[in-house]
Amino acid sequence: IPFDRVEVATPGTRNGSYPTRLIAPSGGIYQVVGHMRLSSPGSPVGAALIGTLGIYRNGAGWAPACVVPFPAFNDGQGRTLQVCSILKLNAGDYLELGVIHNSSTPLQVIGGLSDSPVFALDRISYTEGGTDKTQGAAVRQSNRVSVPHNTWKVISFNTADYNPCQCWSSMAPDRLKAPAAGLWAAFGHIGFPWRSGGTRRHIGILLNGTRYIALPGAPPDPLTDGTMNHDLQASTVVRLAQGDILQLVAYQDSGVALDLMINSRFGLARVA
Contact, 247 vs 174, CB < 8 A? Predict the structure, then answer.
């Protein structure tokens, strides 16, 4: 998707010759957000439509945890889509926001003051005296995790992509802990395999084991060919006290246990 207006830009993040790209001016940890609304001009989109909103990295493939499929829509109302992640980028890495779909009817990205697509990249890491002072972590689970029917499942993680402030520990692998009070961005990403049955697939971010601070969800994919995984994302910005604990949870009611796809991801980064 090309963009023609810059709201805020750090030198090096934009190149007028490449209006589709956001560029990392230096290596570090970045938060990236893409948002758009799609509609179908003319005749409604057929129920066979499947598509994906995602963030492409260096023109070579989808960035980790930056892909959100969307199911059929033929109600004429369109769909609002958003993808959010925390990534470790090298200097010169570039990201692009894109959509692919299999509809014979062209889809239209809606513009205007209230519905214009948004694509944002924000560096959240910093160093001081040669030491990485980033307050945050990004972890993933390299195995498939079983989520029982009609049960909220707390997900554990086994790999830290970065963890400079020790927000995550292998001794307590199912949580991220805020090392200091402040304003924090959190995100999670899971993928359920396609399966008919039930009405709910959920991802949630739980604060201190008692309160959900993000709880998006959707019915299972309304597809019949069984080829499309159901990816879900949760993201939020929340004020945390020192020692507050966040956990990523999953829920489904298909009637049987479902194994999440590999590389479920969970991230936390201080923004203020």
Answer: yes
Q: CB neighbours of 215 closer than 8 A, spacing ≥ 6?
A: 202, 203, 204, 205, 234
Q: Say which residue, 40 or 60, is predicted with more confidence.
A: 60
Q: Give how far Cα 71 sits from Cα of 148, 218, 255, Å.
A: 24, 10, 21
Which tokens is 178 given? 């805020």
d(CA 210, CA 207): 6
Q: What is the DSSP string of 66-102?
A: EEEEE----SSS-EEEEEEEEEEE-TT-EEEEEEEE-
Nearest residue to 121 via CA among 214, 10, 19: 10
Q: What does the mean pLDDT of the chain come to?
A: 80
What would the mean pLDDT of 38-54 be, rounded to a whole number? 60
Token pair listed for 11? 């030198």
Mean pLDDT of 126-145: 82
How does pLDDT run across 93-130, given as a tens digit for each residue? 999 988 877 766 677 777 665 667 888 888 877 777 77
Q: How far apart are CA 245 and CA 180, in angstroms?
A: 11
Cα 162 from Cα 34, distance rounded (Å): 22
Smallest CA-to-CA distance from 40 within 123, 105, 95 is with 105
Q: In 3D, which of 102, 99, 261, 100 has the Cα closest to residue 194?
A: 261
Contacts of 98 (CB under 8 A, 6+ apart): 1, 53, 54, 55, 56
- Report the alpha-carbon distance of residue 38 to residue 77 in Å, rounded: 9
pLDDT-derived band at 172, boundaries 50, 70, 90: very high
For position 70, what pLDDT does the model report? Answer: 66
